[in-house]
Amino acid sequence: MIEDDAYQGLNHLSTLILTGNPIQRLALGAFSGLSSLQKLVAVETNLASLEDFPIGHLKTLKELNVAHNLIRSFKFPEYFSNLPNLEHLDLSNNKIQNIYHEDLKVLHQMPLLNLSLDLSLNPLDFIEPGTFKEIKLNELTLRSNFNSTRVMKICIQGLAGLKINRLVLGEFKNERILKSFDRSVLEGLCNLTFEQFRIAYFSEFPRDDTGLFNCLVNVSVISLLSLDLDSLEALPKDYRWQHLELINCNFKQFPTLKLNSLKKLVFIDNKGMSTFTEFALPNLQFLDLKRNHLSFKGCCSHTNFGTTKLKHLDLSFNDIITMNSNFLGLEQLEHLDFQHSSLKQANDFSVFLSLRNLRYLDISYTNTRVVFHGIFVGLVSLQTLKMAGNSFQNNLLPDIFTELTNLIILDLSKCQLEQVSQMAFHSLLRLQVLNMSHNKLLSLDTLPYKPLHSLQILDCSFNRIMESKEQELQHLPRSLALLNLTQNKFACFCEHQSFLQWVKDQRQLLVGAEQMMCTQPLDMQDMPVLSFRNATCQMNKMIISVSVLTILLVSVAGVLVYKFYFHLMLLAGCKKYGRGESTYDAFVIYSSQDEDWVRNELVKNLEEGVPPFRLCLHYRDFIPGVAIAANIIQEGFHKSRKVIVVVSQHFIQSRWCIFEYEIAQTWQFLSSRAGIIFIVLQKLEKSLLRQQVELYRLLSRNTYLEWENSILGRHIFWRQLRKALLDGKSWRPEGTADADSRQQEATAST
């Protein structure tokens, strides 16, 4: 139910659709308040009569659709006189069977001159003669209304006196009722006055067209749709047809037309023939031959169509079209369409040279491979060029548009382009729309677009663009309003940070910026480009810097540890043993070549003397199974108070001795109580000693002991050595004198 004032207050509502509502009751004021309503659709609303439809006050109503209802009477209610603006009334698919003169009384009293009336799919049986006399309509449609040609003939005769702009007769593709069509059916049309006639979907249409269209001599527009016609051969020249449409009529051969008045011919979807046949239509201006599977062996010149006045030519969706003429005699052409036909020899010469008035050219998907750079020479007035789905030599777009200075729209999509010449668009100063989508461009090289001062729309979607350099983005025309970069393969790496930031800054310019997705790296795959964060790059740079610095420090530390490993071991040992009692009085460093002197002299005199000193000797005190270097540090240095260095020529030449000496220096530095006692066994050559710079300096600056093999020299040597070893050693002095005398006797006897 729709109650009174249901739409009150909707003063500006222009369209109301009630389709499919099972309305049982409409109040008289149901549509009150709709003072601006222009379109009312009440399809399938159980409406049984126009009398009960409360719309008489809708003076602005232009379209009323009450199709698919239960209306049985064609009577126009009195309130139709209050609908002066009504232009379209759809009563199709109702239950109307009979139409009487009384039903159109309102139209006789106040005619609606622009009314279009659709009565299709009503089971018409009878139209009272004279019912439509002096009635003027814009259009009347009667499709799938009659159950026999007899009834159809009666009803058409009942239309006598009707003045109408366009009359549509026929059936629907899926609503075929008449099994055959009688030519006498159309005889009743002689009593009508109309300008346009359309007849559609009649089976078993008469094969002999002689006299079939005699009542249509003065009609200006004829449309024959899906009729079983083999040909049109009997049309006399004096027919005044100006516009003829032959659509899906199963012609076996191209019709031989001799209509001198014909200006427009639409011949499409007639797939029963394969070869184009020349015809002569001297006043023809518009020719549409698309979707016929026709082959043209010689295209195109005025001899093909018998006219020099042609302005519109559509040969799209056909088979092979061989170009062997440059449109001689067709210089007035303004619109030319070859799309989805296979063009041959179009690349051999300047095929469009004569078409200086052409405004529109479509050669999309014509299997054209552009090699000849002069292919578009002559098209000085061209405004729209569509050449999608073709290809170019080396997949490079060359400079082929030099003369197209008036071009506004250019479509180069799906041309397998990988590169664009820097001069490709230099002459297209008026170009406003450029489609470069579905190609193989790897980067957004904007330099070729710099001359396009009028460009407003640039579509580079569905390419393989990964990025664009920051300096290149500056070449985009300032006039650009929309740029489409969706469905590309953007690499969201930090090295492309400037481009990715540009994308964020240009959201208003970019179409579907939210749909621009990253394909690299893997952790950002299928993520929006807008989700890329510059902070990530800063963080990555910091991480990389820290990582490099860390690696560098670790490497340096590793080298230092490797080089000073034993020094570090010594340091650790000093901390461990620094406060404990020493096991040995001295650790002896000497060359194995001097081992006899160490055993017979040094050990015997120090360990057997008074006080006795305990020496650390590698051959005796080092722990078996432990590395030599570890024994030197752990057993030698860490457990000894002093270090005795026996310097000789052999010592200087021994790598192990020099190593032990360097460790001894570190040991002396780390241990506050440590001391190194140098014993020089023999006179050393200065040149040899200088090979060990540090040792040379130490011996030059510090006191050392020299071994002399004489009684006095030996006495002084042992006295000085004991004194040095006693420094820092705790011992009891009892018996010291006796011990000294015994030591002197032992020395004298030796």
Which short descriptors sum up this protein?
Rossmann fold, Leucine-rich repeat, LRR (right-handed beta-alpha superhelix), single chain, 21-stranded parallel sheet, 5-stranded parallel sheet, alpha/beta, 750 residues, 19% strand, glycoprotein
Secondary structure elements and pairings:
Blueprint: E1 15-17, E2 39-41, E3 63-65, E4 88-90, E5 98-99, H1 105-109, E6 116-118, E7 126-127, E8 136-143, H2 149-157, E9 163-170, E10 193-200, E11 221-225, E12 243-247, E13 264-268, E14 286-288, E15 296-301, H3 302-305, E16 312-314, E17 320-328, E18 335-337, E19 342-344, E20 360-362, E21 369-370, E22 384-386, E23 391-392, E24 396-397, E25 409-411, E26 419-420, E27 433-435, E28 457-459, E29 482-484, E30 490-491, H4 497-505, E31 510-511, E32 518-520, H5 534-563, H6 565-577, E33 584-589, H7 595-607, E34 615-616, H8 618-621, H9 628-637, E35 640-647, H10 649-653, H11 655-670, E36 675-680, H12 686-689, H13 693-701, E37 705-706, H14 711-726, H15 736-749
Parallel strand pairs: 1-2, 2-3, 3-4, 4-6, 5-7, 6-8, 8-9, 9-10, 10-11, 11-12, 12-13, 13-14, 14-16, 15-17, 16-18, 17-19, 18-20, 20-22, 21-23, 22-25, 24-26, 25-27, 27-28, 28-29, 29-31, 30-32, 33-34, 33-35, 35-36, 36-37
Helix pairs in contact: 6-9, 6-11
Could you give a short description of this structure?
It contains 15 helices and 37 strands. By secondary structure, the protein is α/β, with parallel strands linked by helices.
